[in-house]
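Why do we care about 3D structure at all? Because function follows from shape, and shape follows, mostly, from sequence. That is the central idea of this module. The next example makes it concrete: a single protein chain, its amino acid sequence, and then its structure expressed as tokens.
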Amino acid sequence: MKRFTPLFITVLLLLTLAAFASDKNYDRLKKQIPLTHEKNLVVNVSYGNGFIQVDKTSSKNVFETEVVYRNSRPEIDYEVVGDEGRLRVSFEGKMSKSFRDNESINVRSFKKLYDNEFYLYLTPQLPMDLTLELGVVKGELNLGGLKISSLYLEIGVSQANINFDQPNPVSMRHCSIEGGVGKLQVRNLGNANIKDFIFQGGVGSYVLDFAGEYQQNTHAKIELGMGKLRLYLPEYIGTRIKLSKSFLSSCSINKVYKDGDNYYNDNWQKTPIQLDMEINAGIGKVDVIWVNKE
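And the structure:
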């Protein structure tokens, strides 16, 4: 039988106490609010740094949230004014040095990559105006199936994925996404049921996927500062692209008819629903890939 020396036991005890003390540096906040008589919802989130996950809740709550934080306690306020529910989240903080893809995130074990982790689950039963102002974040935002009437999303430095994996039951009047520096992917925008879409990209690598089930005509305006943009566009509906670019930018588009700065696919003005797009490219590369329904 192997015997442990007193020195080994002492070192093991010190390491255990250090790990326990490190875990105690983290605090946790949980909150949920049940649905009452709300008819619509306004959500404003200001989140400085850390990991973020947004999804829909399966319960009869307006929202559910869990926050793990290290230094700054978040402010989570909810009130009902008339028939309108108003959720405001304000949360600042610092990100830890580890910012890697291959690490797991486990909120229960406190094996943290980040000083902050923010999980927000919203009701799919109420139409909502959603505003997300994010600083330095890594995250997963699954907005499919939510009744989003308007969306404003601003990200400073990101490594984030946004997905509309299910159709939006209501018309989204306006959708504005602004990406600063980093990597950003937005998938299945056709499911988002958007009337007017604006995207502004700063310095980074971006993917905009316009596949999905369209319910109305969509006008999209895309501005790219310096970086790479890959566009997945639906071949199965009429699509027009008006392209403005500098001599420092390049664009790859095939399977289209060209007329000046305008590019048309074969279905333009031949399908009930149309996608009309303007692209203004500064310094960088734009690649267009046509997709069909799966």
